[in-house]
Amino acid sequence: MDNTSMQLLVVGLLLILVRQGVRSEFGDLAGDWLVDYGQSELRLLEGESQQVQLHIYNVLPKGSPLDYQFVVYSGEEQRASSLVRIPWADFDQLGSWRGSVDVTGVRFGYSSLEVELQSAGLKEMEAYPNPLSIAVLRSRVVDERVTTYVSAALALLMFLNLGTVLDLHRLAAIVCRPVGPVVGVVSRFVAMPALGYGLGRVLWPGAWPLQLALLYTALAPSGGLANVCAVFLKGNLNLSVATTTINCLLALAFLPIWILVLGRLLYEDDELAVPFGQLSGGAAALVACLAIGVLLRLCVPRTTRFIFRFLKPLSVILSLCLVGLTVGLNWFVFYEFTWQVLVAALCLPLAGYLATYLLSKLLCRSATDALTLSIEASVLNMTMPIVLLQSSRLDQPQLDLVLVVPIASSLVSLVLVILFYCARRCLGWNKRQDEDGFDHKQLIAEHEEQEGDLYQRP
């Protein structure tokens, strides 16, 4: 480090020390002066300006009154903007001032309107200990229900697409000997919530809304994205779809249990609710779409031939539409992206993958089943945590601030799977390992053979 850099560092440190040294305790400069904001909280939209009727009174300067001025400003300038200087000449003989202060919303979130007393030359200053809370709300363009319903429709189309390639014999064998689905259930509703809760406590101590968002992200059963990833990674598609379906049905029981235990005991919140209507409707629609897909394969084989040949492109298109819609309509959350969010988004899917893979191998699952169940645990749902958070008692803008957790976590988990797929392809490992592994070409060959047998029958 050269001499110039050293001098600048010393000057900066001195300025910090001087700034800290001149700040006085409240009441030292002008007695116990008071501020009346006329309201307990200011709520405004982004880009909106409102006037706050301010009353500063009971000001009794201990030095020369002309040496003092009041400064009104926003504590978080990136959220709200306001700056007014009130010289002592504007106060009456009783040490009182009334006037209006303009406050403009900049970006959704929380700020505060601070009032500070300063002496001439900033030799001394003190801040009023009770600032006015400011809540800046996001200007909504699209109704949240539209996003939820369209996302659900895309997910159901994905399940309809996957239902046409299920093997009923292998699916029946999985249901009759459900070791794999049991591993998936334990991973989703025991291991993942514990990981989510622990990470939330470590990364955001005291910030229970962010902890709750991460818990909901860990609790939500993976949707069709995990099934699509199983297709590309040569996993057991039948096991993947069966596990997803069972988890979605069991979520009706396990989600209330976790919310009652953690939401009300650990978070000390008695008002957290479970959207039973949306969850049960989604689970029923999922089963119905899978059933329709299976019926199409059995009853209309010529129609499903198109889906067989274009399964991967269709899956990719539907996945991109689902992710693109959710991210596109909630792009604003990335303003709240922090290193804690990045750590949570990386650690939760990685820890879930490793824990599930280890549990699968301990229960003597095949490599294909272990891979499939690990993908099922690590690919995180994006839509259901948002629905759960919208049903909680979080007010705006707090809800918008915490949506970054499920959206970022889901995106990062998907990116990790894509990187894993690319590495397997480059190393030549992305191959079918046993008869339960999904093979697109073999599926088409079997379908054509079945059609040939039908045509040869008298």
What CATH architecture label of the largest domain applies?
Answer: Up-down Bundle
Low-pLDDT stretches are 7-21, 453-458
CATH topology of the largest domain: Na+/H+ antiporter like fold
End-to-end Cα distance, whole Å, is 91 Å
Q: Radius of gyration from the CA trace?
A: 29 Å
Return the CATH class of the largest domain.
Answer: Mainly Alpha
**Largest sheet report:** 6 strands, mixed
- The SS-based structural class is alpha+beta
The percentage helix is 55-70%
- What is the string of SSEs from the N terminus onward? HEEEEEEEEEEHHHHHHHHHHHHHHH
Structural domains: how many: 2
- DSSP strand count: 10
Total helical segments: 16
Could you characterize what this model shows?
- The chain folds into 2 domains: 111 residues, Immunoglobulin-like (Sandwich); 298 residues, Na+/H+ antiporter like fold (Up-down Bundle).
- The chain contains 16 helices and 10 strands.
- The strands form 2 sheets. Strands 2, 4, 6, 8, 9 and 10 form a 6-stranded mixed beta sheet that branches.
- Helix 6 packs antiparallel against helix 12.
- The chain starts with a helix and ends with a helix.
- The relative contact order is 0.11.
- The C terminus is likely disordered.
Brief digest:
With 458 residues, this protein is an alpha+beta fold. The protein is built from 16 helices and ten strands. Keywords: Membrane, Signal, Symport, Transmembrane, Transmembrane helix, Transport.
